[in-house]
């Protein structure tokens, strides 16, 4: 079964792009063919995958969403750029600042369905798509990704931003499903993100709130610990799976477990 995973929260700073890059690294370690799509105009995901402003591709996510496919499928392949450096083998549909213009694009008809059409026939059983969404309430970019995705993962820091981001993300996902835009979209879960070690009153309270409110949707078994090596690999633009040490191994294992929870097969 084809899998396109969307990583989404309506709050920034909750580890959304970090999770996206971790999933790419874990899928790459499984020897899967990875297609990474960046729908955040800030391009954090694009940068971590080794594509800088200087070597940005001529055809980007912005161009893909601006292009009227007129029923044609598979156009995403035209936007593929090879990830840089240590991310060899990963194909990227890169973001750029101009992507923000699509939010106010009132000319393009059916823009929200263009990514799904573009990926049709491109993402198959032999590979996996991973989409990094912007931290905003709905909008055309978020909707485009949620319409294209098969599954969505919601990272949540165990603080007020994480709680609000998860709550609002679920509301947007519900709307997309209820409107029939992607009724089969599956929520993998709310994943605790950047979780500090030790005892922490707020961490414990937010975790309990999420568990009590969302039941099995809250996946504390997939908690992503806060380790400094994650920021080091992000700065160096290398996969966490290439980093040495126990902390990197622990993070790599969690990302791999999230892939499994999303139904991605090795």
From TrEMBL:
PANTHER family: COBYRINIC ACID AC-DIAMIDE SYNTHASE, P-LOOP CONTAINING NUCLEOSIDE TRIPHOSPHATE HYDROLASE. It comes from Streptomyces sp. 900105245. Residues 6-211 form the CobQ/CobB/MinD/ParA nucleotide binding domain. It comes from the Bacteria. This is ParA family protein. Signal peptide: none annotated.
